[in-house]
Design brief:
3 strands; three-stranded antiparallel beta sheet; alpha+beta; single chain; Arc Repressor Mutant, subunit A
Length: about 100
Amino acid sequence: MDVDLIYKALSNPTRRQILQWLKTPAQYFPEEECLDFSRGVCAGQIERLGQVSQSTMSNHLSVLQQAGLITANKHGQWSYFSRNETLIQQYIEHLQQHL
């Protein structure tokens, strides 16, 4: 776990919002377009909800992925993203012990 990468990722409000959306995807994304969320949420759906350009959203998703906060699964030409709950829990525990 790279705490500095996580701090950087969480310093941006859009990236924090993406993590919130992925925490409860059924609340924010149409299930019929995302199947049953077992693969995660399609990048295009996240981009539409975020109302930013594809390149901007790609950058946000990349920063979150490099920090380990989200994981990507490729299915054909589509990328699906979900939260890395294990790492998020480790980060919470780290904060509780060190701050």
